[in-house]
Write a structure and sequence with these properties.
Elements (H helix, E strand, L loop, with lengths): L1 H11 L4 H22 L8 H4 L1 E10 L7 H17 L6 E5 L3 E7 L4 H8 L5 E11 L22 E4 L67 H9 L5 H6 L10 E7 L2 E13 L3 E9 L5 E8 L1 H15 L8 E5 L2 E4 L2 E2 L7 E8 L1 H13 L4 E11 L1 H30 L2 H26 L6 H30 L4 H33 L4 H30 L3 H4 L9 H4 L11 H8 L1
Helix pairs in contact: 2-11, 2-14, 10-11, 10-12, 11-12, 11-14, 12-13, 12-14, 13-14
Length: about 600
């Protein structure tokens, strides 16, 4: 009786196959609905398939900074900010090795302009605000004055702090600004143009500060007049247009008056700025901190070197004597105003504190711009490759043809060897392909995964890995049939043995893909990622689809009775059924005796 119960458990171990099939069906429907809701019905293509330009930048030390991981990561963030300023949403900026940055810009972008943007060192200047207007094109009023054309919106207040002092504990790690449309370096600071909280002047200047420079070293501090040409350019500027933002101050010199854009929340403002008063290279340090002494919340502490300290004292004294918006001190990074704090008094000692409606993230972002606004490294363009859309289309077509040929060969082999069982393998491959396609479409939007040619190769290799899992399962079933069992017990007994082999095989493949992804760079990672993804999906499909489907088909006469076209024909498998009758010989001999 116990043996009978044990046998029933073996047969019943096949469980409820309908539930597993329902799970895989629900997953397919959910993923398919996701790609339609997101609007991304096709995978995002890499530059080698979609076409575009690939620029390789080689780093060199700049201003005494070494080529290390921190500086390289900072440079990647700034370069990514520049490319995004061109309105490119699918560009890829990533490090390769220890001193190289690869910038892949898809088709539809002016390659020459992109090369100019990423190939030069960022410029950070402190300029006086001459005029401030909403970011859309404006019609100038006949009575408008050069410096009072808009209601002032100061972005904060700058107050003096002792050299090297901070208002709280510095924030340790930079974080991306939460403002929609802004870049990781914090192109605009949340609340930066709102009225600041008044902060009293701090202690006496630090002894030994540099002498105040002559007016010639700080041109434009008291000159707030704007030329007619600059006024016309300012009125026509539309800061909502990424192209116009990127070109606003292109070709200008530090001594020129320029126009620039700045963002607060989702709203853009445009500025007429005077000549550079202090070069960003003279910033010696910046950090974010939480001010618990004055109750200003998150603030940004800023300090200058000996040359910048003297200039800063002179400039803030000149700005404090003027009316808004001419008392604002614009921080200009490559033609983008990242902050424009107002100045109420001369600040000596070479240190200051910028306060306003900062969050921790926005304070971190502004501190990073001040500290790393100018790229810590200089870069030389060592390679520039242009991939035409036509060439990319040919490569994609070639990859799809190769995949179709490989799939066709697998199908032919399966039908020639396994006959009816091949239909199970083909349907399983189709389910795996549908899962892979939908997941790739969603990953393109979620994590920026781009399907490049090596990734297509990884998908083609995965066809063989997936087919191998089916073969292992089928052969285990056939081995059980050769031992004389019927199909249902053969499926039940063959699955545990096949399962172990499939898991070990897929684990080895996944491990190889993971190691390749970690140690490789660039496009090879696409191959490793696709290989790893399809290997995981192979396990999912075999467990939740192939095995339950085989359990159901084992109950159908076509397979259960071993039809010659089922792939389970006893004759073709070499099943020797007469061997079971040998056990009856002793009984016969006893009867005759």
């Amino acid at each position: 009786m116990a043996a009978a119960k044990k046998g029933r458990r073996s047969t019943g171990s096949q469980g409820y196959p309908g539930r597993s099939l329902a799970v895989i069906l629900i997953a397919l429907v959910a993923l398919t609905g996701g790609i339609f809701l997101s609007g991304h019905k096709t995978p995002r293509l890499g530059i080698d398939l979609a076409g575009g330009v690939s620029i390789t930048l080689t780093a060199k030390p700049h201003q005494g900074d070494a080529v290390n991981k921190t500086n390289m990561d900072t440079a990647v963030n700034i370069i990514n900010q520049r490319v995004n300023g061109l309105g490119v949403s699918e560009a890829e900026v990533q490090t390769q090795g220890s001193s190289t940055i690869i910038v892949d810009i898809p088709k539809g972008t002016n390659a020459d302009q992109a090369e100019k943007q990423v190939g030069t060192t960022a410029q950070l200047y402190f300029r006086q605000v001459l005029q401030e207007l909403p970011g859309t094109p404006t019609t100038p009023s006949p009575s408008a004055t050069p410096s009072g054309g808009a209601t002032p919106k100061p972005s904060g207040s700058a107050t003096s702090t002792p050299s090297g002092a901070t208002a709280g504990t510095p924030s340790s790690t930079p974080s991306s600004t939460p403002t929609t449309g802004s870049s990781p370096q914090g192109r605009a600071v949340s609340g930066a143009l709102k009225a600041p909280t008044p902060v009293p002047t701090a202690t006496q200047p630090t002894p030994g500060a540099a002498d105040t420079p002559s007016p010639a070293t700080t041109p434009g501090a008291a000159d707030t007049s704007i030329s007619a040409a600059l006024t016309d350019k300012l009125n026509k500027l539309d800061c909502n247009d990424p192209q116009q933002r990127a070109e606003a101050s292109t070709g200008s010199k530090p001594t020129d008056q320029v126009v620039a854009c700045g963002q607060v929340g989702k709203q853009w403002f445009k500025y007429a700025l005077g000549p550079s008063l202090i070069d960003g290279k003279n910033v010696s340090g910046a950090n974010s901190a939480f001010d618990t002494q004055q109750g200003n919340g998150w603030v940004v502490n800023l300090s200058f070197d000996s040359k910048g300290a003297g200039q800063f004292t002179k400039v803030t004294g000149d700005l404090a004597s003027q009316q808004p918006p001419n008392n604002q001190f614009a921080i200009d990074l490559d033609g983008n105003v990242v902050s424009a704090p107002s100045v109420a008094q001369a600040l000596s000692g070479g240190s200051a504190q910028i306060s306003g409606n900062f969050t921790q993230q926005s304070a971190d972002d502004l501190a990073n711009v001040l500290k790393f606004g100018s790229l810590p490294l200089s870069f030389q363009i060592s390679d520039r490759t242009t991939v035409s859309a036509a060439l990319g289309g040919e490569q994609l077509r070639g990859g799809l043809i190769a995949g179709a040929v490989g799939l066709a060969l697998v199908v032919i082999y399966m039908f020639a060897y396994y006959r009816g069982l091949a239909s199970v393998a083909i349907v399983s491959l189709l389910v795996s392909a549908a899962l892979t396609y939908t997941i790739m479409c969603l990953l393109g939007q979620a994590i920026g995964f781009a399907l490049n040619l090596p990734a297509v190769c990884g998908a083609i290799v995965a066809i063989g890995i997936t087919a191998d899992s089916f073969i292992v399962f089928f052969e285990r079933i056939r081995d059980e049939l050769r031992e004389g069992r019927s199909l249902q017990p053969a499926v039940a007994r063959g699955w545990p043995r096949a399962r172990r082999t499939i898991l070990v095989s897929d684990f080895v493949s996944f491990l190889a893909a993971a190691v390749l992804y970690v140690v490789s760079v660039g496009k090879v990672q696409g191959f490793a990622f696709t290989l790893g993804l399809t290997t995981v999906l192979d396990v999912v499909v075999v467990f939740l689809f192939t095995k339950p489907l085989m359990t159901i088909l084992a109950q159908r006469p076509f397979f259960a009775q071993g039809h010659k076209w089922s792939g389970l024909d006893p004759k073709s498998l070499g099943v020797k059924t007469p061997l079971r009758r040998v056990r009856r010989t002793p009984s016969t001999e006893t009867k005759e005796a």
